[in-house]
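INFO  loader      accepted 1 record
INFO  loader      residues=242
INFO  predictor   begin
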Amino acid sequence: MELRLQKWLSMAGVASRRKAEEMIQDGRVRVNGAVVTELGAKADPARDVLEVDGKIVETTQKKVYIMLHKPEGVVTTVTDPFGRPTVMDLVPSDVRLFPVGRLDQDTGGLLLMTNDGEWAQKLTHPKHEIKKTYVAVVKGIPTNENLRKLRNGIVIEGKKTAPAQVRLYENIPVKGEKTQNAKLIITIHEGRNRQVRNMCEAIGHKVISLKRVMVGGLELGNVAKGKWRYLTPKEVRNVVKG
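INFO  predictor   done
INFO  writer      dumping tokens
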């Protein structure tokens, strides 16, 4: 299967895609001995030889699969131009990994990271409908009617969300007040930007805190905030089954 050279370099752990593009444009990349400077160029790892600065790029890099408990305040990017802490600061530095999908800066919980582009694609492509479960604490107590709206789908930015699983887990008293907030368990399979937050706000209940606890049947469990662990081979296989 042919790949764009920048993708091949990224998957092999040589450089990020952006850096790989710079390498290509600078004439540092060769395919079968010929310099390639075109960003759209492709090659097949099964039959072609890729070189960077005269060194052959190995195609047998060990695949790594990690579950990270992302803390709030950390951004889900490989690099950040504003100097904010990223998830890359929390995982091993001897292997070039990338996050599978993303959690926004204010959301914590289960984030998968890998160097396996094909596996990541299976987890993030909409057609596979991989389920993701969140624990959301929202301001106030949603009515049964509003919970029904979330379950059936609600229009956000002109597009209706897919049906979701939503359960009111418990009411939480607000200290010093007579009001209560709600803890909701929400499972979706879409990956729209800030979707859970926007769904709750659409029914008039702002999210106070949000944590992802499950992806495709893989639970965060007792992984401490800011810590990570390797997935077992069985988990790697099963998580992409949804």
